[in-house]
Amino acid sequence: MTDRTEEARRRWRARLPVGIGVLLVLVSAGLFAVVPLAEASNRAYAGASACPAGTRSDSCTTTAPAVVKGAVYEHSGKSVRYWLLLTERGTGIARRVRMPRRSPVFDAVHAGDTVALTYWRGEVRTVRFGAATQEAWTSPADDGRLPAALGFVALPFGLGALLLGRWRRRHPSTAAHAAPWQLAAALVVLLVLGVLGATASFLADAVRDAFLFVAGAAVPVALLAVLFARWMAGRMRRAADTSDIVPVPPTGRRCVRASVYGDVPYSVAGFDHLVVGDGRPAATPDPDGRVARRTLPETLTVRCVRSLGPGDPEFWPTAYRYDCAVIECRDGDRTVLIAGRRRDAALILGALTTAVPG
After folding, report:
1. Neighbours of 71 (CB within 10 A)
2. pLDDT category, 166, cuts 50, 70, 90?
3. DSSP-assigned beta bridge partners for residue 52
4. How many CB atoms are located within 10 Å of the residue 161 CB?
5. Do the beta carbons of residue 280 and residue 300 sit within 8 Å?
6. Of residues 203 and 271, more confidently modeled
7. Dist. CA 16–CA 173, nearest whole Å
8. Which of 66, 180, 240, 262 could form a disulfide with 307 if both were Cys (CB 3.0 to 4.6 A apart)?
9. What does pTM read for this prediction?
10. Per-residue pLDDT tens over the stretch 73-105
11. Distance between CA 184 and CA 171 in Å, rounded?
12. What would the 3-class secondary structure string for the chain be?
């Protein structure tokens, strides 16, 4: 019954992120599908011709001069909004037009300058000053900026959840040694591209430019991830190779960081140091090795030296990371594990295998 419960738990741990991932990917796909519909007004504006003189219509554009009264920065949290304060000539109507960024028009104009405003469907869409032209900020409710940004946010989390579910299905063990660094690298790539896409959705002149920007950024970001993956793979290969660890008898008393694990009286929680070179090795919580010592018996025999593996205590990968060697021992019919830093493993091994006089 216990095995069945554990198996069901493992299946649930794999299926839950898959279900969440599928939902987020579908949400992202739906948001991206909304973008062309939301951008329909922008496409219509791009194809609109100028209205005949003296007429106005939603199907054509109208240009009118306006006088700049000022340029205002409005801080909202960490973001800054740029507003042009204008008065339309002839009508005296005051307008407050938001610009998406400082250049090229916002920074160029000063109070008293004359600009040309292009209207379409009753809204200011373009501001011209001399040879410089800048599109006014388009409300996210009226175009595809907001759904595109939300889609870029949802997609990496959805794909990340799918990758997590796949990883859990292939690695059902919950041991901390199975750190999914490959999964972490993939998630970083997805999140970076998602953040870039969401940011570009609001800052780019057109939403389609955000998609082009993300497509272009995918190559260098993926390349950096591949380089990171190769570096991590090499580091893990080096960590797994314990062939160069050979016994080195201690020449004097040393207290090294190490943990003893097993169903034995000298395996005590919090005893994270080992005294060597002073008789038999002894576990102790004292970094100086002077108090509360638990001596390792002569019945303890070394079987092998290996890297971290399934079944090892969950805190060892956190405590030692990739600088860990595990000395697997036997004390009668019980397995005893001793974990320590690789640079100390040879000394611990030498202390365990060297006969102590008298």
Report:
1. 19
2. confident
3. none
4. 21
5. no
6. 271
7. 16
8. 240
9. 0.56
10. 888 777 888 999 999 998 889 999 999 888 899
11. 15
12. CHHHHHHHHHHHHHHHHHHHHHHHHHHHHHHHHHHHHHCHHHHHHHCCEECCCCCCCCCEEEEEEEEEEEEEEEEECCEEEEEEEEEECCCCCEEEEEECCCCCCCCCCCCCCEEEEEEECCEEEEEEECCEEEECCCCCCCCCHHHHHHHHHHHHHHHHHHHHHHHHHHCCCCCCCCCCHHHHHHHHHHHHHHHHHHHHHHHCCCHHHHHHHHHHHHHHHHHHHHHHHHHHHHHHHHHHCCCCCCCCCCCCCEEEEEEEECCCCCCCCCCCEEEECCCCCEEECCCCCCCCCEECCCCEEEEEEECCCCCCCCHHHHHHCCCEEEEEEEECCEEEEEEEEHHHHHHHHHHHHCCCCC
Residue 357 has pLDDT above 70, yes or no: no
Distance CA 216, CA 72 (A): 34
Task: With both helix axes pointing from N to C terminus, report the angle between 207-240 and 145-170 in degrees, rounded to the nearest 10.
Answer: 20
Distance of alpha carbon 4 from alpha carbon 74, whole angstroms: 60
Please tell me which of 37-41, 164-168, 198-202 the model is most confident about, judged by mean pLDDT. Answer: 198-202
The overall longest dimension of the chain from CA atoms, in Å, is 113
Amino acid at 64: A
| 197-214 residue pLDDT tens | 999 988 887 788 889 999
**Phi then psi dihedrals of residue 324, to 5 deg:** -130, 140
State phi, psi for 225 to the nearest 5 degrees. -65, -40
Please give the Cα distance from 170 to 112 (Å, whole number).
68
| Percentage with pLDDT > 90 across the chain | 33
Q: How many other C-beta atoms lie within 10 A of the C-beta of residue 136? A: 18
